[in-house]
Predict the structure.
Amino acid sequence: MMKRIFAVVLSACLALGVLAGCSGSSASYDVNEVASAVAAVCNIDGPADFTQDDMEFMMNLPADSYDEFAGQYTTTNGASGTVLVVHAASGKAADVESALAAYRDGLVAQFETYKDDFPVGYEQNKAGRVVVKGDYVVLALAGADVDYADVDAAIEEAMP
């Protein structure tokens, strides 16, 4: 009898442990707060807020691929500086990650042509981050004089 009770208790503990291990991926973040925290360290020159049209035409993200977004990008020609936090629609995080990485890679290719004229923009875009945390995807392209260790720390602190 004691062995049965022990087996039932052990089985229940294992089941709870498995459920607890799965719960970490369902974290919820405020995209505006995360975007503000990351932008605070990214030194975005002449920032403009992302709009629905920017998401579709600049980032190549159709409206059905995300639930919400927040962020800013630089309006200064030749400068680096973009922060975008996207809460992807269910099952779409990989698509969002791919689109944001393609945007970053496109900027790198563009800046490569002019890297002698805009070396800081080239290097900062090239080192840019696309970070996925569950259904949230963060694009961070730091501006001039920003160390990406600070950007990484800001993302981690805003999205533990």
User: Anything to note?
Assistant: Residues 29-158 form one domain. Helices lie at 2-22, 31-42, 52-58, 93-113, 119-126, 148-158.
